[in-house]
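TASK: fixed-backbone design
INPUT:
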């Protein structure tokens, strides 16, 4: 990995020299725009919309649109007066419990490596964060912008997570939030049962990007000049359920079968009960007929007494 930034973590009166590395990388397959006829790369020229001339990088400045077709132009000298461009400090502001930081605020992740003689204070801060079970809230200037971030420990390394500012998080505004929708207790219990039947431990390595793998297979087949083997058809998503309870119950059974667990015995017992009742109804007329026949036979055998 190549360091993209150098600075220091300011921890009270302690300064820890560090190097910054990108902790993640995108694995998307990237394409170039080409001419369909001959495969030539498509190039774009930087032209001015006013004079129509091609503009070099040296003549490009940053402009801020203030509306009405007016533009405020900022030069490199304007940005040079800002303190953020030369600041290389990660200032620790406070230490908070990790669960108090909403994951929606997290943006990008960077590894921090100690530089030179800063290994001991680096390890000290790392172990202190681990023992306290807290994360450090810090401010850092990256790419000419002041950012809020957290410092936490991952696999023995300090991890810097840049964060979005609170005003960058959109508020959800949807019509159903104002609707009075009542959920019945049996439905909630069945949904909880479905969650329990699908519960497990998160293992990231168990999940793969099937689309990227299929796309890479198509590219490899093009390069090797062979036919592309069509992947297996994916099961279509079920249609919207009319009976919510029936859909939940079927989902629970499906999840149990997928986990290798036996299905519920209640439905089977319920099927046996009507069969027993039907058999009892069929046997009732036979028993009654036997009883009447026995009574007739008994009355025929009994002798009649003579009266004087």
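OUTPUT:
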């Amino acid at each position: 990995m190549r360091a993209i930034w150098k600075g220091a973590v300011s921890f009270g009166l302690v300064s820890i020299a560090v190097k910054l590395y990108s902790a993640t990388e995108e694995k998307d397959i990237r394409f170039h725009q080409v001419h369909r006829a001959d495969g030539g790369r498509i190039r774009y020229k930087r032209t001015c919309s006013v004079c129509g001339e091609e503009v070099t990088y040296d003549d490009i400045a940053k402009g801020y649109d203030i509306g009405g077709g007016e533009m405020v132009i900022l030069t490199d000298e304007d940005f040079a007066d800002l303190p953020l461009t030369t600041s290389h400090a990660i200032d620790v502001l406070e230490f908070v419990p990790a669960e108090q930081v909403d994951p929606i605020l997290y943006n990008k992740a960077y590894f921090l490596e100690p530089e030179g003689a800063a290994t001991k204070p680096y390890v000290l801060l790392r172990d202190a964060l681990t023992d306290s079970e807290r994360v450090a809230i810090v401010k850092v200037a990256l790419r000419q912008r002041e950012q809020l971030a957290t410092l936490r420990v991952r696999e023995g390394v300090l991890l810097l997570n840049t964060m979005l500012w609170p005003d960058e998080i959109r508020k959800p505004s949807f019509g159903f939030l104002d609707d009075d929708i009542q959920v019945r207790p049996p439905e909630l219990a069945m949904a909880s049962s479905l969650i329990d039947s699908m519960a497990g431990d998160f293992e990231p390595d168990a999940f793969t990007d099937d689309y990227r793998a299929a796309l890479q297979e198509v590219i490899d087949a093009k390069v090797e000049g062979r036919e592309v083997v069509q992947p297996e058809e994916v099961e279509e998503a079920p249609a919207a359920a009319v009976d919510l309870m029936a859909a939940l119950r079927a989902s629970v059974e499906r999840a149990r079968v997928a986990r290798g667990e036996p299905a519920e015995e209640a439905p089977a017992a319920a099927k046996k009960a009507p069969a027993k009742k039907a058999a009892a109804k069929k046997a009732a007329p036979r028993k009654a007929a036997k009883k009447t026949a026995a009574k007739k036979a008994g009355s025929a055998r009994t002798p009649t007494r003579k009266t004087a």
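COMMENT: The two ends are 128 Å apart (CA to CA).
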